[in-house]
Amino acid sequence: MKWEETFTWNGKSLPYNRIPYNNTAERSIEIPIVLNFLSTNGKVEDKLLEVGNVLCNYEN
Predict the structure, then answer these.
(1) Cβ contact 36:12 at 8 Å
(2) Which of 8, 22, 6, 24 minimizes the C-alpha distance to 57?
């Protein structure tokens, strides 16, 4: 069985998270969805409260 490299979220194709750090089943889709949300809805000067500090492990 071949694994898909992307999934569809709200009509947009996003890549699965394949970073091995704490990559549970949920994180494989949570991280791409959140990063997509931030890249399309936020401005650099916007402030964001991230409870848990998860994204620092996935975003450079």
Answers:
(1) yes
(2) 22
